[in-house]
Structures are given as structure tokens and as C-alpha cells.
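Mods, move this if it's the wrong board.
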Amino acid sequence: MRPRVHFHSDCPYFAGCENMLVNFFHDDRLMREFEVSFTYRQSAAYDAGFRSRVARDFDVRPLGLKDVAELDARVQRLPAPLGWLLRLTARVLLFRYWFVLWNTWLLYRTIGNPDLLHVNNGNYPGAYSCMAAVFAARLRGIRRIVYVANNVAIPYCSVQRWLDYPFDRLVAATVSIFVTASRHAGTELQKVLRLPLSKVINIHNGIAPRPVTEDRGQTSRRLGIPAGRVLIGVVAIIEERKGHLVLLDAVRRLKKHGQGGALPFIIIEGTGSEVRAVNDYVARHGLGDDVRLIGSEPNIFNLLNAVDAIALPSVSHEDFPNVVLEAMSLGKPVIASRLAGIPEQIGHRESGLLVEPRDSAGLAEAMRELAADAALREQLGRNARRRFSERFTADAAVAGYLSLYRRVLST
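Not the wrong board. C-alpha cells:
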């Protein structure tokens, strides 16, 4: 009889931290060797993302799990005084931990007794239903738990995190092994949870490139991209942590110093809380002829195929971004911040260019250099594709986890 592996994840939508789940659920080796089941916090956005990315039919159980972030989102739509009062009430009454109890009970009833539990979380502590999954497994007597933290762990820098402390200790004592995509994230998780070195390992994420359904000309015409300019794409949720305003300041610097024909055209894909701020900056500094926001692109690989390079000017809360791997898979050079796990993806001046976070002058120089030197773009892109094939494929990532599962199950 095949051993059973149960996966649990919690995210408000099918975000980048869910990409490894797609790799797992599409991998024939894993599905042959193990009986697989999956639970997640149900939402319309997650359901739609999951259905669009995972074609295989297997045991999937959406659950009515509770999360205080979902409550906060609903409260924000209320009039300000009432919303403020409800948020304060939720914190005073510690709704977060009542939700943990509810989620633990629901998961206890649902997950049964798998041989191994795989928890996929955006970071740590991240979604608190992931904490609840560990507690439910402990109550069930499940002794083999793999816990994946997809971003850098949050230290005890607030009252909220200190309230988490006893729960963190229980998670640290119960989980068999913690996995991070980068060595940097592993080091930070080890510090926060005070884990022994043997309890944290690094397995690089991988991606399976999706089909390109348009040629570069078709994508450029559809998006109204001007011809004859080097095109740099920015593919990221538009939030402060992704550094869009740093990039726009770099474009402003280039334009101010008169780069002429070498000035690249910037296309920004995505939505998020900083869209208005980005549009305001573009209008205020007269960058409308050099920057275009296109919202959500249905097939991101069409856009990546159309650009000459990718820029990711993140300033915080980053680890091992999938878009870097996606660009590398198509042979595109990447300009990115020297932050968290990104230097483990990109070799500086070997497969891309790295700049310091928030260094708009350095970012401007990197964009100017790539825009002016077609041979450099070609060399970096060729090396990026080779580096991707050697290190970051979906097959390689899943093989790392299969090896880990076998080791954990044998103990």
C-alpha cells in the first residue's frame, strides 16, 4: 500500500508560493509513489487560481478555515470609526487565536492519518491555519511533518509576535523538518524559532515554464508597446515592498540625464495597493511616454517572451521570487535587488545584474547598461537559461522533496 502524503496550504489567492504545489500535483513520480490529498482555505480567488493551474483529478478538500487577515479585509470596507472599533475588538479579544482553535478542530476532522503532512506557508508565521495544521497533526499522532516557509520569517519585533511565542515553541517541537527555498531564509528561520541546524534544510524552488502562445510582435502590438526601444518588464504585485517607486526614480534619473535612444521602455504588470502611487509618480514626473501599466496579464509567459529584460527592484519581504526563474527559463537577463535569496538565483554579471535595495542610481546604471549593449543582453540571457536548466527546473525541485520524504518516512 502506498504511503499517504497530505498537503495543506493557506493563501488568499493562488500566489507565487503555491507554484511548487503545481509541480507536486503534476509530477507523475510523486503521484505513483504516494497517495496524495490536499486541503486549503477556500476562497473564490484561490479556487479559480487552483483550477487554472492544476489539471489532475485527486483528493482535494477546500475548507472554511478562518483567518484574521480575511476579517481585516472585510472590516476595511466599513465606515472608518466602525472599522477601527472592530479591528481593535478583534485584537483585544485575540480573535487570531480563537481562529487557530477553530482551524485545528476542522483540520483534525479532515486530514485523517496520513503518513506524512506537508505544510506549505507563505512565510513564518504567515497563515495561522498552517500552525493549526501542525497542532491537528500532533493531536492525530502524525509524527512526520515537513513545513515549508516560502519567505523570510518574521522576528519577535511586535507585541503580536511575542503573543505567538508559545505557539511557535510547539510548532518547533512538533515539525520534523523545516524547508526554505533559500539559504538566507533558512538562516533567519533557524534564528527566529531557535532550531538546531539539522532541522532546517534548503531545497531551491523550481518552475515548469508555461506555453508561449504569441510571438513578440503579437504581444507588443496587443499591448501597444512602441517599436524600436529596449523593453524592460516588471512583473510583481504592486506593493511598496516590490520597489516600483525605486524603479520609477531610476527611470526619472535616466530621462533627466538625456539617455536619448538608449532610454528603455518600462512595462509594469500587476495590481496591488500601490497602483495609485505608481500612476501619480508617472504623471508627476512626465514619464507617460516611457512607462506603461497594463494590469494583470493572463499569460505571463507571453509578456516575458516579449521583453528584452526583467527588473525586480524589491526592497523588503522577498526571498526566492518565481518571476526571476520564469525569466531565466526564457533566456532573459534579470536586473534585481541583492536581497534575501535573489543572489542564489542570479550570478552577478554572469546571468544578470544585481543592485543594492533602494539604490535608484545603481538601478538606473544597470538599466542604461543593458539597454545600450545588445551583446551583453544576449550573453546574460544565454547564461541565465543554462543556469535555470541546471538548477531550477520543476523536476529538480520535486526530486529534492521526494528524497526528503523518503528520508523522513524511513525514520
